[in-house]
């Protein structure tokens, strides 16, 4: 990752990405190099989440060989009130009901200042650093579908924290019911959850299996792959037409497929532009790039958040 380090340069910082199954942490050096990493299983509920973060923080300090005396950035799924440092509607973490004062709970447990942000938003900060642009959309294709928006170098959260919830844009009136209560949302077509329903596999992530089968000429796999990539392309089109960003970065768990995913999404974007000189002139496919495989984007973004 030497090529991206200048864009990540700054003081040493710590980032924690708290997910439903694991909590991952990094120590980011002044030059943007990852100095240490640690990963632990995430325990459910308020105490479980705080305890999991503390175990990762302690493991990072042990690996570095000295106390970590710096502000810690934390990325977490759910609705985050960044001013108050609270979290709600983080179902995968077992956090429901009243706002959880996560920032303050973590600061007490870790003994250092903490700043909390939505996980897709912190990933967008790292995406901005990777591509070195001030207008960036990060599209995360994971279990769900969501976008982080950086406009003029600043995160755009929206009035209710819903900016970038592209997965809940209805696109198919005859489609499946979405968990949000609407019908035919993009998330029912272009997400890891949707892919698992359309291409179930007994072992491992379905995306890799699907793309391999499609490459081998499996007709059903090709159809499932094409519809999935069409959905991703439609999300990019919507973001391009509303935000018109300088760069669009594709990431999330499904993006671990790598270059085959980018190639197919680009093909679908060009197909969408075939009947519209206007859409074609926007060059959305040319603005698209992928997060490097296995790069801990959200965790690095959390570290950037802590540093800033």
From TrEMBL:
SUPFAM superfamilies with a match to the protein in the record: Actin-like ATPase domain (SSF53067)
Transmembrane segments: none
UniProt xrefs under PANTHER family: BIFUNCTIONAL UDP-N-ACETYLGLUCOSAMINE 2-EPIMERASE_N-ACETYLMANNOSAMINE KINASE (PTHR18964:SF149), ROK (REPRESSOR, ORF, KINASE) FAMILY (PTHR18964)
Lineage: Bacteria, Bacillati, Actinomycetota, Actinomycetes, Propionibacteriales
Keywords: Kinase, Transferase
InterPro entries: ATPase_NBD, ROK
Alphabetized GO MF terms: kinase activity
Family recorded in the similarity comment: Belongs to the ROK (NagC/XylR) family.
Domain of life according to the entry: Bacteria
Gene3D superfamilies according to UniProt: 3.30.420.40
Transferase in keyword set: yes
Protein name: Sugar kinase of the NBD/HSP70 family, may contain an N-terminal HTH domain
């Amino acid at each position: 990752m030497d090529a991206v380090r200048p864009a990540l340069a700054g003081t040493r910082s710590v980032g924690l990405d708290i997910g439903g199954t694991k909590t991952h942490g990094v120590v980011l050096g002044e030059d943007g190099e990852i100095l240490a990493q640690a990963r632990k299983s995430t325990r459910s509920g308020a105490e479980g989440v705080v305890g999991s973060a503390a175990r990762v923080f302690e493991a990072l300090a042990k690996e570095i060989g000295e106390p970590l005396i710096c502000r810690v950035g934390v990325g977490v799924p759910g609705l985050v009130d960044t001013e108050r440092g609270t979290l709600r509607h983080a179902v995968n973490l077992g956090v429901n009901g009243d706002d959880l004062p996560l920032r303050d709970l973590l600061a007490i447990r870790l003994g250092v200042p903490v700043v909390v942000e939505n996980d897709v938003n912190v990933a967008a900060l790292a995406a901005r650093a990777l591509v070195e642009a001030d207008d960036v959309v990060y599209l995360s294709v994971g279990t769900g579908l969501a976008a982080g928006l950086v406009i003029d170098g600043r995160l755009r959260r929206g009035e209710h924290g819903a900016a970038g919830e592209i997965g809940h844009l209805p696109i198919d009136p005859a489609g499946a019911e979405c968990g949000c209560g609407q019908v035919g949302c993009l998330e029912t077509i272009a997400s890891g959850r949707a892919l698992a329903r359309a291409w179930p596999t007994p072992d491992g992530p379905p995306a890799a299996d699907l793309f391999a089968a499609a490459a081998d000429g499996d007709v059903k796999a090709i159809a499932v792959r094409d519809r999935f990539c069409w959905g991703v392309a439609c999300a990019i089109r919507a973001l391009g037409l509303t935000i018109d960003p300088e760069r669009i970065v594709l990431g999330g768990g499904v993006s671990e497929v790598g270059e085959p995913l980018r190639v197919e999404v680009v093909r679908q974007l060009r197909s969408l532009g075939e009947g519209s000189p206007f859409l074609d002139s926007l060059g959305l496919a040319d603005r698209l790039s992928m997060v490097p495989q296995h790069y801990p984007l959200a965790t690095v973004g959390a570290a950037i958040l802590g540093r800033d």
